[in-house]
Every structure is written in C-alpha cells, then in structure tokens.
C-alpha cells in the first residue's frame, strides 16, 4: 500500500530581520523541513529606527536564504508585510506561524503573542522552534551593538550581511 503523501503546509516566519542572523537562518533551515512553502515576512514597521530600511532587509533575507531553499527543496518566498500577522498568514494561505524561541527571554512575549493570535485566528497554529546551541543566543540587536563598537560579528551573521552591516555603519554620520 502506498504511504499517504505528507500534508502540504504553508508556513509564515515573521520577524524584523534587522539584520538576518545565523540564528534566523538556523530557524529557517528547520522550518523548511516542516512546511512545503515557507513565506518569510519582513515586518515593515520595525519599532524605533531600524538600521536597514525594509526593502534592504527583504533583499538580504532573500539572498541569504537562497542556499537553504536549494538544499531543502522547499519553496522560500520573502516578502514584507505591514498588516496584522494573522491577516498576513491568511493572505498567503498559511496555516502555521513559525517562531524561534531563545532561552527564557523570548518566552513571555511569544506566549502572549501566540495566545492573542490564536484568539484572532484559531485556524492558524503557532509552532516554536529552537536554534542549535551554537546560534541560540544570537540577536540582531547585539549584532548591531557589537558592530557599532568595532567588535567582530563574523560568527553571528552570514558573510554578505556582515559586509552590509559594516558598510551601513561606516556610512552613517558619527
Ligand atoms: P521580532 O522583532 O519579531 O522579535 P526578529 O527578527 O528579532 O523579530 O526575530 C524573528 C523570530 O526569530 C522571533 O521568533 C525570534 O524569537 C526568532 N529568533 C531570532 N533570533 C533567534 C535565535 N538566535 N534563536 C532562535 N530564535 C531566534
């Protein structure tokens, strides 16, 4: 008897990606094993003063995830969004929201967001993934702070992103 085909799920992975880090890439690689199409949603509205405008954040995520798409065979689509997350998820036909979870620091915020999104859209499930030990502690915020103070960010971000971060910081008025 033939095995039933695995369910074809569309998932969204939303975030600010200011900039994309090896932590995000770790989560994206894991997410690509779970869904057949992964829509990475780059939030236009990134709180106060992101380092990169949203279109550049989208370009970087697109460039850095090409290899993951090729290796996994999962279709990866990168797009910006400025609506309610559950509306964005529905608009792309997603039934799963993927989020990464780092230690305890993320839990409270993620717990509230998942609960409220579930109330708004019970047909969309939030799934949490953990990055490998090597990448768990990485955050975009600290990458920017370290780079700004002249520290080495090589092991936290992919190479093209590192170059863009350094270029952007050096072109900023002191
Ligand atoms: P947001 O501004 O929504 O927190 P981020 O771009 O910072 O967006 O992160 C997007 C998602 O990726 C969030 O779920 C965040 O917890 C997760 N994430 C970011 N860095 C890591 C990491 N190093 N390990 C695991 N998850 C991570």
Can you describe what's shown?
- The structure is a single chain.
- With 174 residues, this protein is of the alpha/beta class.
- The chain contains six helices and five strands.
- The longest helix has 19 residues, at 54-72.
- Adenosine-5'-diphosphate (ADP) is lined by residues 15-17, 21, 23-24, 27, 99-100, 102, 106, 131, 135-136, 138-140.
The biggest beta sheet reads: 5 strands, parallel
Task: Based on the coordinates given, report the CATH architecture.
Answer: 3-Layer(aba) Sandwich
Please give the radius of gyration in angstroms. Answer: 16 Å
> Tell me, what is the CATH class?
Alpha Beta
Topology as a string of helices (H) and strands (E): EHEHEHEHEHH
- The chain-level mean pLDDT equals 93
Distance between the termini: 68 Å
Low-confidence stretches: none
Helix content: 40-55%
User: CATH H level: which superfamily?
Assistant: HUPs
The distinct bound ligands, ions and cofactors come out as: adenosine-5'-diphosphate
List keywords for this structure.
174 residues; alpha/beta; Rossmann fold; 5-stranded parallel sheet; 6 helices; 41% helix; globular; binds adenosine-5'-diphosphate
Secondary-structure blueprint:
Layout: E1 10-15, H1 22-31, E2 37-43, H2 54-72, E3 75-81, H3 85-91, E4 96-100, H4 107-120, E5 125-129, H5 140-148, H6 159-171
This protein binds adenosine-5'-diphosphate (ADP).
The site of adenosine-5'-diphosphate has 17 residues, from helix 1 and strand 4.
């Amino acid at each position: 008897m033939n095995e039933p085909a695995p369910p074809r799920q569309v998932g969204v992975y939303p975030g600010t990606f200011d900039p994309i880090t090896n932590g995000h890439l770790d989560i994206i690689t894991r997410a690509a094993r779970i869904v057949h199409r992964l829509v990475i949603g780059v939030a236009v509205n990134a709180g106060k003063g992101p380092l990169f405008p949203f279109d550049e954040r989208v370009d970087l995520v697109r460039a850095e995830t090409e290899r993951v798409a090729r290796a996994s065979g999962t279709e990866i689509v990168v797009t910006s969004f400025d609506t309610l997350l559950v509306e964005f998820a529905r608009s792309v036909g997603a039934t799963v929201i993927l989020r990464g979870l780092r230690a305890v620091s993320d839990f409270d915020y993620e717990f509230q967001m998942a609960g409220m999104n579930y109330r708004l859209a019970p047909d969309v499930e939030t799934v949490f993934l953990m990055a490998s030990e090597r990448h768990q502690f990485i955050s975009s915020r600290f990458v920017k702070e370290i780079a700004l103070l002249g520290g080495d960010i090589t092991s936290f971000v992919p190479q093209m992103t590192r170059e863009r971060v350094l270029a952007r910081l050096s072109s900023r008025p002191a």
